[in-house]
Amino acid sequence: MTQADQRTLTVPEGLDGERVDAALARLFGLSRSRAADLISEGHVLVDGHSVAKSHRVEPGTLLEVSIPVQSDPLAVVPGIVEGIRIVHDDESIVVIDKPVGVAVHPSPGWSGPTVVGHLAGAGFRIATSGASERQGIVQRLDVGTSGVMVICKSERAYSVLKNAFRHRTVDKTYHALVQGHPDPLEGTVDAPIGRHPKHDYKFAVMADGRHSVTHYETLEAHRFASLLEITLETGRTHQIRVHMQALKHPCVGDLTYGADPVLTKRVGLQRQWLHAMRLGFEHPDTGDYVSYESTYPDDLQHALDVIRDAD
User: Fold this and answer.
1) Which residues belong to any copy of the RNA-binding S4 domain (predicted)?
2) 195 - beta bridge partners?
3) Residues 186 and 266 in one domain
4) What's the predicted TM-score (pTM) here?
5) What own/partner pairs with CB < 8 Å and gap ≥ 24 does 133-140 have?
6) 233 and 278, same domain (yes or no)
């Protein structure tokens, strides 16, 4: 809140004896709770004095109200984000390597950096299709997940790639370091995922959840953990993390989904060991198959080195 709407009015005869919060609500078109908040936060003066929300007003009383202008939590704020790397850029798409700690687009409760904010700050023209805060976005990565992703610059690219993701023709390959050793070493998890019944910020395997399929293959097996290559048939929120927890092999560092805090501290992680390695699809303009890759960021590489050295 950086600006405020200053208003001054005298109480009319018709509001004689009303509580000041009710009078404010009627005079300024506010909700009763919003009016009460303004009073408690010291934004309201009655004849120059602060009062309680239950104070009764009289005709001719001077009301001075300062109404802070609330910022839109979904507004895209342009600004360069350190660590975002441009992997590919052409007239239709831009492929980036997203670092940890960056959201793809604004959302309620998130005040940190975003991919769309970076692209706006860097002067990229993005497709206007989609909700205003996520225009051009055809896929998402969690704030705590790093790696390669594509954003659309043209309307045609948005339409074509949105359809490709919907019909699961995009190849999405991740690497995950998980605790223990999955048995079998290569397999498929086909288990529906829904909102967690007790914690709305989490997801879980639920009988009435959405169809979710994850394929995995063990690349390295170490004393405390295994490095997996994972491909997704579906793209549910937290899908890999939920399915790995369901296998009793959560991603190293993923305290939300059952990771060992002692091992997490030992490898120095502050997030789940999960990285979007490769992304492949038919280019929306040429129809040619294209593939883009990323490398492990420093925190994940360090954690993997610690695990390897523990053998």
Assistant:
1) 18-74
2) 203
3) yes
4) 0.77
5) 133/74, 133/75, 133/76, 133/105, 133/106, 133/107, 134/104, 134/105, 137/104, 137/105, 138/162, 138/165, 139/165, 139/170, 139/172, 139/235, 140/104, 140/105
6) yes
Same domain, 262 and 173: yes
Question: Is 90 in the active site?
Answer: no
Q: Name the average pLDDT for the chain.
A: 93
- Of 16, 89, 90, 142, which one is the catalytic site residue? 142
Q: Tell me the per-residue pLDDT of 217-258, one tens digit each, with 9 for 90 and over.
A: 999 999 999 999 999 999 999 999 999 999 999 999 999 999
CA dist., res. 73 & res. 117, Å (int):
13
State how many domains the chain has: 3
* Host domain of residue 184: 168-311
Question: How many angstroms separate the CA atoms of 102 and 290, rounded?
Answer: 25
Q: What is the CATH number of the domain that holds 12?
A: 3.10.290.10
Token digits of residue 246: 């369901």
Task: Please check whether residues 154 and 259 belong to one and the same domain.
Answer: no
Is there a contact between 239 and 193 (Cβ–Cβ < 8 Å)? yes
